[in-house]
Amino acid sequence: MTTDEQQNQQPLFTEFSPASKADWELKAREDLRDTPLESLTWHTYEGIDIKPYYAKEDIADLPFTSQNPGDFPFLRGDKTGSNSWLNVQQVEAHGNGKHAIDKALDALHRGADGIYFVVHQQELFDVAHLVRQIDLGKYSVSYAVKEQPDCFLQRLYAELERCNVSPLNLRGFLNFDPISVQSKIDPEESRDIIKILDLTKDSPDFYGITVNGTSFSSIGASITQEIAYTLSAAVAYADRLTTAGQPLESVLRNMQFVMASGTNYFFEIAKLRALRLLWAAVVEAYKAEPALAASLRIHSTTSSWYQTTLDPYVNMLRTTTEAMSAVIAGCDSLTVTPFDSTFKASDEFSERIARNVSIILKEEAYLDKAIDPAAGSYYLESLTAALAQRAWELFQEVESMGGFEKAYGEGFILGAVTEVSRRKFRNIATGREVLVGTNKYPNPKESLSFDPEELIQSAAFDTTRGAYPTEVMRMATELHLRKRQRRPKAIVAVIGGSEKRQVNASFAQEFFSCAGFETTQEHFATVEEASDKLSNTAAEVVVVSSPEAAYIREFGPRIRNHHAKPTLILAQDPQHMKDEMLANGYNEFIFEDCDMSTILQLVQRRLAQDEDQKNA
Asked: What's the domain of life for this entry (predicted)?
């Protein structure tokens, strides 16, 4: 654009006058009428209160918001040309790994930019086949090993030398992380990492120190905990290695974080921005060259915490938004987990779908064209600053306790994560937090393609996920179906009529549908009609919803005096009437925000007792 063209440009939307934050607040309060604006504030697991709107005034005093990409402290990343990232497919390598290597080569021909091998027996892994099949100078290839990482790399570098492949072009990383995974590093492991740094010194694009933030996110940590504990673990490595004589510059240049991206879309974008900002503060605290902070590499993977076994195709949607968050936040590489990985080994179809998520985000959504699209957003800039402040305070608390290893050893870190994860589990159990297809909006026609009993007993079944408690209850229902050749039945009996009771009845119907029951809602004008028609019901559960307390009191004893004795549940918060309702024959109570896991445990226990009596 020429200077004349710039001068002739007319500002857009001149018919609209600028609105201040006070103007927006006044308008919002008018539109909300009797609803207080403050009631829309969201209280998060991170201890951050999210307002219903943000304005220019919210970021007026924030530092770094006007900086360009590539500028210290790298809140906006160090990319200056494009927002490119590597599409990395994870491949499990068992035995000599030949099958995994051949699969990886096929994936590279089908759109993957790199491969991440999870090596289960590093001493058996055929590095000669790897070097012959995959051009390690062209593709990024990374490895996760549980032990003797130096031996693995020695074999790899020896094979590179034998095949006249220069180590200068080697790209990828080695994931060997005793601190994040097992909370400490022993002297031998410390020596192993020193050997890694020595072996990889001629491979500037191969990272030898990996810190797994996924160790915290996978067990339900908050985002501030993820950031703080990942930073603290990284500092533990830096202190250990520099004390052992390694140059600080070498340690910082070889540092990489592996972070999981969850479903909290904007928080996940802000997370990586805050992480880079705080890592720059750590580098500055070491009095190292500030530019070294730009060497930090971030590999993102979609979160295991939010993956579900039930209605697994929903995982495709989850991983897509998770991948978008990581990419918009500027990750360097990305692994998308196949949608069926919670209950079986992924196949060609699910792996292709996972691989194509990243390709679509690049080739069709053009997310590689804009660096840090979050820049200037009043909400995202404010959120980044809030997360950074909270995480830095927690990081300093851990450091004041003697660092990561000591804080973990004393139970502080695991205790703090457990407290948050319990709140998350409770919110899922009460329906406040929704996992679509699992605790809300179930697929009534879903048929499980696996043996639920075998899966539950499998060591590979991830019990740390948010969906796990609900899934176990649903699978117990599935086992009942397979043994009895029919689903257990739940009837929601609506006696009389009331809008509120309809809400409770609908909630109960959806709840038992999620639990895998054949669920129907039936309406009755009187208690007599309801008890007569339900007296010989084959339903294992009867839920009663009524506006009249007299109906409720009368129905319980009536159904108890009939032949059928289903589990009887009242669709109402009993409050001060709980003892009376229990005395009238009700076993439990269901209402919004109740603990659904307690109800399912009761129902499944009674189903098991009935099964035992039939088999006696």
From this structure: Bacteria
- Highest CATH level, class, for 86-407: alpha beta
Q: How far apart are CA 534 and CA 180, in angstroms?
A: 57
Q: Above pLDDT 70, what percent of the chain?
A: 96
Query: At a CB cut-off of 8 Å and minimum separation 6, what does 88 contact?
Result: 112, 113, 114, 115, 116, 140, 142, 299, 333, 334, 335
> Measuring CA to CA, which residue among 527, 520, 521 is closest to residue 495?
527
Distance from C-alpha of 255 to C-alpha of 297, rounded to nearest angstrom: 7
Q: How many helices (H) and strands (E) does the chain have?
A: 23, 16
Residues 6+ apart with CB under 8 A from 336: 301, 302, 319, 322, 323, 354, 355, 357, 358
Distance of alpha carbon 65 from its chain centroid, rounded? Answer: 28
Instruction: Encode 84-102 in three state secondary structure.
Output: CCEEEEEEEECCCCHHHHH
CATH 3.40.30.10 fits 486-613, yes or no: no
Give the tokens for residue 387: 């997360």
Residue 403 CA, chain-centre distance (Å), reads 26
Would you call 498 exposed, middle or buried from its count of C-beta atoms within 10 A (0-12, 13-18, 19+)? middle
Collapsed DSSP state (helix, strand, coil) of residue 103: helix
Q: Are 101 and 345 in contact (CB under 8 A)?
A: no
Distance CA 205, CA 215 (A): 24
Place of tokens 């009761």: 602
Give 469-505 as a 3 state SS string: HHHHHHHHHHHHHHHHCCCCEEEEEEECCCHHHHHHH
- In angstroms, rounded to a whole number, what is the distance separating the alpha carbons of residues 492 and 519? 8
pTM of the model: 0.90
Same fold, 86-407 and 486-613: no
Contact 586, 570 (CB under 8 A): yes
Residue recorded with tokens 């990284």: 234
Tens of pLDDT, residues 160-184: 999 999 999 999 999 999 988 778 8
Alpha carbon distances (Å) from 340 to 305, 324, 384: 14, 20, 33
Q: Is the pLDDT of residue 248 over 90?
A: yes
Percent of the chain with pLDDT over 90: 64
Distances from the Cα of 151 to the Cα of 106, 121, 204, angstroms: 27, 12, 20
- Which segment, 304-318, 513-527, 587-601, is predicted with the most confidence on average? 304-318
Token pair for 206: 């191969």
Q: Is the pLDDT of residue 276 over 80?
A: yes
How many angstroms separate the CA atoms of 148 and 492, rounded? 59
**Of 236, 159, 252, 150, which Cα lies nearest the Cα of 196?**
150
Alpha carbon distance 463, 456 (integer Å) = 9
Please write the tens of the pLDDT for every residue from 416-440. Answer: 999 999 999 989 988 889 999 999 9
Q: Are strands 42-43 and 209-212 parallel, antiparallel or unpaired?
A: unpaired
Residue the block writes with tokens 């604006």: 37
Q: Which of 129, 130, 124, 116 is nearest to 94 (CA)?
A: 124
For 504-600, list the strands marked E by DSSP. Answer: 518-524, 541-545, 567-570, 588-589
Q: For the chain, give every domain's residue range.
A: 21-57, 86-407, 486-613
Q: How is residue 144 written in tokens? A: 């996760």
What confidence score (pLDDT) does residue 264 get? 96
